[in-house]
Amino acid sequence: MTHGTNGRRRAVITGLGLITPVGIGVPAFWDSLVSGRSGVGPISRFDASNYDTRIAAEVQGFEPSDYMDRKEARRMDRFAQFAVAAGRLALEDAALSMKACEPERVAVWIGSGIGGLETLEETSRILAEKGPGRVSPYFVPMLIANMAAGQVSIMTGAKGTCGGPVTACATGTNAIGDALRLIQLGEADVVLAGGTEAPITPLAVAGFCSARAMSTNNADPSGASRPFDKERDGFVMGEGAAVLVIEELNRAVQRGARIYAELAGYGSTSDAYHVVQPSPGGEGGARAMLKAVADAGLEPGAVDYINAHGTSTPLNDKFETEAIKTVFGAHAYRLLVSSTKSMTGHLLGAAGAAEAAATALAIHSGVVPPTINYATPDPDCDLDYVPNTARKQPVAVAISNSLGFGGHNATILLRRRLA
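Predicted structure:
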């Protein structure tokens, strides 16, 4: 069957491209998550010695010239370099040659919550110290958030719709949900979708420090991100990119593609409440989950696993737990719920895409990644968070949540592909 029960075309995930703090590429990424390895350490990208937070989840061993021409790399901000690298890895993982595609039927939909912040900070310094004549003509193209998608389009030759959402921490999930719609509506046959972010800069870290949003557990970097634990004290900033190859089912089957999971449902809502705080009780997130489940033509009881937004901040984890209980009722206590941010840190606009990849791999492998650093139960967070050790368990249906600043909520539903 190539159409769902509602007559829409079906979409499947056939490739994963990952540039993350816990590894580059699928094997390294998944092995780290299943093994419960943290990617958090002292900040090395700048001198953070006078900051309240001096830790982050940085990508290690990334060399742009492994994925693109050195000259072109110099004309990209780090966030766009990540996207191009992840896009190339995704196509390789999917064993998909662009020569076998109709370029006009391949879309690129990759978002970034912030864009080229490193370029902005460095160029502001050059302007102040050396004057306007020394500002690079590539400044604006390096800065703007759509350039991640633009550069991937140029790299691949994809000529379908190109762009991406900017919805803070929900960006990656919104991009993948939008890709589902492009496939369902017949606007594209293949979509390279995901998110990218390179926010570990002096200004961004200072801003989040001033907002008191980040963990200050500098003495124990690998233990600092502790979602749903009573002692959680804030999120840990991360960087990286994740790009998924999403294909129309019949096309993927005809070319013999390996299918990680079917992308079957999408829900997106707004809290309309506060710029940084989630609505009480997670009301907006609950509606996003309900919409994604209904969009897939399922009931909440069909869901086995939730890759939670789980930022390790006091209010987010509490309200997301309440939202899960609202949606799933008694079934909430039978669900497996884990936050891979305990290992990757919070990749901001790339987080949802990396977590979608983790969710697809959980379905594909029958292993659910853990929430590490879970030591002290919180009475407000009383679900099964798969504490500290991965769990081997078949997953037929899973959802992945993202809840962003500005009240943006997004949920996608993945499932094992049916006939």
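Summary: The two ends are 6 Å apart (CA to CA).
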